[in-house]
Amino acid sequence: MMFAHCRARPMLRALLLASVVALSAGGAASAAPIQAPAGAPAFISDRLSVEVVGAGPDVILIPGYSCSREVWRATADRLKATHRVHLVQLAGFAGEAWTHGDGPLLEPAVEALAGYVQSAGLSKPAVIGHSMGGLSALMLAQRHPEAVGRVMAVDNLPFFSALFGPQVTPATARPFADQAAQALLIQDDAALRAAQQQGAVGLARDPATRAAMVEWSLASDRQALATAIREVMTTDVRPNLAAMATPVTALYASDADGGAPAAMADALWTREYATLPGVKLIRVDGSRHFIMADQPQRFAELVDQFLTD
Q1: Where would I find the AB hydrolase-1 domain in this sequence (predicted)?
Q2: Of the candidates 255, 248, 290, 253, which has an alpha carbon nearest to the alpha carbon of residue 273?
Q3: Residue 189 confidence (pLDDT)
Q4: Which residue, of 138, 181, 228, 238, has the fewest CB within 10 Å?
Q5: Residue 218 belongs to what domain range?
């Protein structure tokens, strides 16, 4: 299976967005109001919710595949003294209700984000996304450039399946994406937890983040995760990079001890972001996929630089 192949290759494992995850959170919920900034009209969505903290220039934080907004808590706590921080939680992940069956996830979530920016009256907010959240940020900037001031993409590629080689296309990735989605739907719960615990080692050096990652995955809706992995593996935003005017900073991880070797990471990110005008590519050493947890001080410095440039 593809998952075994990925676990055998640290770089792919470290970037596979916690590929073998899911345990249905179960139950359905009606659309819930999002916490919009004071004075803004209420925004209703069953695609995401937003927690708002602090005051100042607006920053939107988008978590990755299966993750809770809590992955951004340390960043939000630090920024809220000087910024108004919008912590996004995607439906279907980490206990957030999923009511869309086997319908699409990624594109409707991006449209909901654009709707939130407009409804909340945000003016060119900075958007920081990790993993699938970074892909969502790129999609938001491409489809709604008026809604985004700048993007920081944290350890994500504009086409995830490029990890498997420059010859891969969305069409050739489709059978593997379908296989990945099907595995999520049929996997035994006990095997799922074991796989998550094993996979978490390749995704983060930080033990607390590894443990949280497993629990978020187990609290996520199985169908939502199957849909998301299929979409992430077959979504390619590279054709639209050349037309982007939104400033983009792309952070990527390198770890000589069990993660992505520096030279391999450099070559991959340089190749995949080559057509994006003015992109800032910054490698963060001593880190696996969860850069914000593995190198928190360096990550904080880079976020501050990104927000003040």
Answers
A1: 59-301
A2: 248
A3: 79
A4: 238
A5: 2-21+30-308
Which residues, in sequence order, are CB contacts of 223 under 8 Å at separation 6+? 24, 92, 98, 101, 102, 185
> Do 211 and 33 form a contact (C-beta atoms < 8 A)?
no
CB atoms under 10 Å from CB of 6, counted, come to 22
Query: Do residues 253 and 260 lie in contact, with contact meaning Cβ atoms separated by under 8 Å?
Result: yes
Which token pair is 60?
């939107």
Give me the residues paired with residue 32 across strands.
45
pLDDT one-digit tens code per residue, 67-91: 999 999 999 999 999 999 999 999 9
CA distance 38 to 59: 16
Whether residue 187 is predicted with pLDDT greater than 80 in this model: the reply is: yes
d(CA 219, CA 225): 11
Q: What angle do CA 91, 96, 100 make, to 5 degrees?
A: 45
Does the pLDDT of residue 26 top 70, yes or no? no
Q: Which residues pair with 289 in a beta bridge?
A: none
Pairing state of beta strands 126-130 and 58-62? parallel
Distance CA 192, CA 198 (A): 10
Q: Strand 48-54 to strand 84-90: parallel, antiparallel, or no bridges (unpaired)?
A: antiparallel
Which residues share a beta bridge with 292? Answer: none
Query: Per the structure block, which two tokens stand in for 5?
Result: 């192949």
List the CATH number of the domain containing 295. 3.40.50.1820
